[in-house]
Amino acid sequence: MAKVLTSRSENYSQWYNDLVIKADLAENSAVRGCMVIKPYGYAIWEKIQAELDRMFKETGHVNAYFPLFIPKSFFSREAQHVEGFAKECAVVTHYRLMKDEVNGGLKVDPSAKLEEELIVRPTSETIIWNTYKNWIQSYRDLPILINQWANVVRWEMRTRLFLRTAEFLWQEGHTAHETSDEAIEETRKILDVYSTFAEEFLAIPVIKGLKTESEKFAGAINTYCIEALMQDGKALQAGTSHFLGQNFAKAFDVKYASREGREEYVWATSWGVSTRLMGALIMAHSDDNGLVLPPALAPQQVVIVPIYKTPEEYTATCNRAHAIKDSLKKLGITVKVDDRDTHKPGWKFAEYELKGVPLRLAIGPRDMEQGTIEVARRDTLTKEVIAQDQLTTVIPALLDTMQKDIFNKAFNFRAQNTFKVDTWEEFLIQVEKGGFISAHWDGDPATEKLIQEETKATIRCIPLDSSEEAGQCVRTGKPSFRRVIFARSY
Amino acid sequence: MAKVLTSRSENYSQWYNDLVIKADLAENSAVRGCMVIKPYGYAIWEKIQAELDRMFKETGHVNAYFPLFIPKSFFSREAQHVEGFAKECAVVTHYRLMKDEVNGGLKVDPSAKLEEELIVRPTSETIIWNTYKNWIQSYRDLPILINQWANVVRWEMRTRLFLRTAEFLWQEGHTAHETSDEAIEETRKILDVYSTFAEEFLAIPVIKGLKTESEKFAGAINTYCIEALMQDGKALQAGTSHFLGQNFAKAFDVKYASREGREEYVWATSWGVSTRLMGALIMAHSDDNGLVLPPALAPQQVVIVPIYKTPEEYTATCNRAHAIKDSLKKLGITVKVDDRDTHKPGWKFAEYELKGVPLRLAIGPRDMEQGTIEVARRDTLTKEVIAQDQLTTVIPALLDTMQKDIFNKAFNFRAQNTFKVDTWEEFLIQVEKGGFISAHWDGDPATEKLIQEETKATIRCIPLDSSEEAGQCVRTGKPSFRRVIFARSY
User: Fold this and answer.
1) Cross-chain Cβ contact A31/B70 below 8 Å
2) What is the interface pTM, i.e. ipTM, of the complex?
3) Superfamily designation of domain A302-398
4) Is the CB of A38 inside 8 Å of chain B's CB atoms?
5) Most CB atoms closer than 10 Å: which of A16, A200, B255, B435?
6) Burial of residue B263, with CB atoms counted within 10 A of its CB: 0-12 exposed, 13-18 middle, 19 or more buried
């Protein structure tokens, strides 16, 4: 069978694009930079959403919904925020079309110009803090722990499916607190939710860390992040949690009467992950045959393919396949029987490999006689024949094993591609090879910028678990007290 | 305790607004016509979404996501569609803001004008059919049964929370079929899903019917709808399912190779319900004390309020309340214990009445001695004392009974407010009183328009279950073959 994907070694970037399209995950739309998320891709996103939503609710958060549009003037209120978002936003200026008598078709009705332009939200801090102003009078109204599932728009010039699109789907949490400590605790708690989700569901090991001043969110005091390493040695920021201090409370004049009866500005956090996680999921585990999905997020965990030549064999194998499906479904496993008579088994095998279905079961006439079934693992591409009457114990255990194995593979890959580097020569060599570079940095944004200009590598984060260690900046030789993680990134 | 709501008899419209605000369901935002859906309102919407999503999936549909923006030119493709939506749409013309050196703040950057304006989707037929063109080559690619959960924007001039807002949340199904019959069957199947959902979950009886030519969706051949009657005698359209024929396939040139090897245009349906259902839910059942929620959609089905004077009583009643909560939770019932010591029981009672929690349990020192508990129903405002050890049988049964009783009450209200009217004099009197008017109509759009101008009543639908019956049009006296439903509406 001809390979449907460009191989990773040949062209990693093309491999990714091929895979997203061929596995029916997403495609580009008629609108520049906006994607269509196809049913199979969306089914994975729904599983991501369901798990995260459960985790947010278990940590005391509730969902709500705020407007898509933000009045232009709101953006001017927080000085750094405007710098970050004004240059790449979709602006609504009119509210009506009319017939274009000259050129045909439709044109904007000039009489329907908005008094104040509206921005399609790139993120919702401003509209939400303008709303919180009315909700918060006293410490009794705090904390507010709200999350929103929404679409947002950032007018990116270079877009890539899932990784960077003009419109994307995400969740954005926006919380309000009495004290700085409580807000910081919330920021860290969510970082833990994100890293737990990444490691246990996406099966992607992540480094928890702090962004540098130049990489932090526009309007934040501190941005915490989780950083993952892709198979091509590039880093991907998989989630961020911001401690906003009192910046937005001051910009929108949100004060509360404290327990001591004083008027205080409210403390804030915001945090989000997006459909970008789909890109991370794809790139972290997949291979030249297609998608590799961790069982925890696979829309179909098991597919059963009947093998037959005669109509009698077709009936018999299909019946057995459906019986097996029913027994596995009772265990909470999602199973599909592909009993289409229009496609050959080999075609089906390739299709489910491409789509990353974790386990493929094949049952033929000999299996019917012997009470056996062939089980193929997507991650290792290995097969074994087992007894049918052991399926209800073997399959759940195997799915658990695969979830762990896929994580461990990614963990080992990262371990093998994380390098302690202490000289600039070594840095220059390593940065071309890819991977995480753990190196000393003098803490100066100018040095950070210089390194980026010279190597395209950025500081991904200052890891939270890095212990103090004296050293010299890898670029300037100036004193440094801890290592940071450099990498080229998505 | 002072009433927090305007009464329905005093001012129904103000009662509705008061209720939406005071029960913490939604509020107006800083953006004209756009609402903030607050956590309690959103929790109800999440329950609506979960049930509908399950029903769509059980009937073979999958979810996907299409772009928020639609190129302006797409709207000109389908002649009726453009008439319906061009006059009330948000238009994106630019993609960047810049500093306004003259006036301060920000202004649109004139150099960042889009080549073609983008419309914020008011509905997605055009962008979706433009996408389907690439997905459909042969009958093997059909049917496509896709649903999308999304936000949409229609620039309404007069808005009301949930009922009519510039931005609202909804689901929109878009299906593609080989034959006209199959598409019509799909349209009707979804109408059944909607009516089942309305009656079994929202507890609102609905009339299934067909819209007249002038009331149908812009671009449809036929629009089916479910129509509900609110307590003020006005009708509310609660969901629509459109048979689009080949209109959009022709507009976007979507053809398929048929089983007979011919090139044919694809047949289409679309269907949707929105956050408007929240308005229906509120108006159908609620009373002057606040929201009345059917148990099937209540975020909290049961609240337990401890009654105490001493710290010992507080501890004892709270402990018992939590034990009861745990036993009910095991039955899948959502329960909250309000053990706040900062609010009095009377305040809590009023609060949960306002928020429509179906069952309120109160447990005091005497109950502790006697093993009893007070159970109060929100719908009837009746109370009874029962034995604590019967709660796990009584409560589930009571929630089921309430769900049915709330539906029956609405059903009886509708029966009492549906009138067969055969003369114009009677029509004029009845229309002022409100309710559904079942009357003969000559089938002429001009008559329909005349009646609307004279009475503000519109034809809500031609009921599907109306049998043929000869009669004379209530307005013109011309021949008619079946009755239709008139009402003033939301």
Assistant:
1) yes
2) 0.96
3) Anticodon-binding domain (3.40.50.800)
4) yes
5) A16
6) exposed
